[in-house]
Design goal:
Elements: E1 8-11, E2 24-31, E3 34-39, E4 43-47, H1 48-56, E5 65-68, E6 72-80, E7 87-88, H2 91-94, H3 105-110, E8 115-117, H4 120-126, E9 134-143, H5 147-153, E10 157-160, H6 164-167, H7 174-192
Parallel strand pairs: 5-9
Antiparallel strand pairs: 1-2, 1-10, 2-3, 3-9, 4-5, 6-8, 6-9, 7-8
């Protein structure tokens, strides 16, 4: 089983689990120990203003909704594009299993397109950054060793590339967009396959 850290986990149309129906999850980590990701398209009725106005003594410049990242209790986190703020979680670091002892590790971190943080100072900085892409999420999705691998084999999930047009898109249409883009990618792969050299197909 190939690990899918740094990719999108998209609920199959046949997945009826209420926690994940039509969900799009960004996979922060997936390895032998299990998996951890954030649902990106489940907004709550709460906003950054409600949470941070008292903390910083004024309304933050952003007033994004807070999203529910899954059924597991966890802190408020931000998935964002500010390099160096938190931990890198982009595919350049994780998708190819680049570990700290790998010669390309530091270059991969420097070029990581996505970062995740739960640090309060980082979050306070991000709520005033209207010039960056960010998703603020509370709770998370977690799987034990081998659990997600089994669900993938059973067809409960689709796996897509870490497409920014999907990750930071409107939550109302994110699932449909992810499925459509994945379908186009599959069709493109089929079309780009060299034609058969069998003469009966000529």
């Amino acid at each position: 089983m190939k690990f899918i850290s740094g990719r999108l986990l998209i609920a199959s149309p046949y997945l009826n689990d209420g926690n994940f129906f039509r969900s799009v999850i960004y996979m922060i980590r997936h390895d032998e120990q299990g998996a951890f990701g954030l649902v990106l398209n489940r907004p709550t009725n709460h906003t950054l203003e409600e949470i941070f106005a008292d903390r910083i003594g004024r309304n933050p410049k952003r007033n994004d909704p807070i999203y529910v990242g899954g059924p597991v209790e966890g802190p408020l986190m931000a998935l964002h594009t500010v390099s160096g703020l938190g931990e890198p979680c982009g595919p350049s670091v994780l998708d190819f299993g680049i570990t700290p002892d790998h010669p390309d590790f530091h270059n991969a971190i420097a070029s990581s397109p996505l970062w995740v943080t739960a640090d309060d100072d980082h979050l306070i900085s991000l709520v005033d950054r209207t010039d960056v892409q960010a998703r603020f999420v509370v709770k998370y999705s977690g799987w034990g060793p081998g659990q997600l691998d089994s669900e993938l084999e059973q067809g409960g999930w689709l796996v897509g590339p870490p497409d920014w047009q999907v990750i930071f898109s409107c939550h109302d249409t994110m699932w449909e967009l992810a499925v459509k883009k994945l379908g186009r990618d599959i069709i493109a792969d089929i079309v780009s396959t060299p034609p058969s050299s069998d003469p009966q197909w000529n």
